[in-house]
Amino acid sequence: MKIDINDLKNKLDIMVPDPKCELIYNKDYELLIAVMLSAQCTDKRVNIVTKELFKKYTLNDLSNIDIKILEKEIHSLGSYTKKAIYTKEIATRLLKDYNGHVPNNREYLEALPGVGHKTANVVLAELFNVPTMAVDTHVTRVANRLTLVKNTNDVNEIENNLMKLFTKDEYNRVNHQLLLLGRYTCTAKNPKCSSCLIDCPNKKAD
Ligand code: SF4
Question: How many Cβ atoms sit within 10 Å of the Cβ of residue 9?
Answer without folding.
Answer: 15
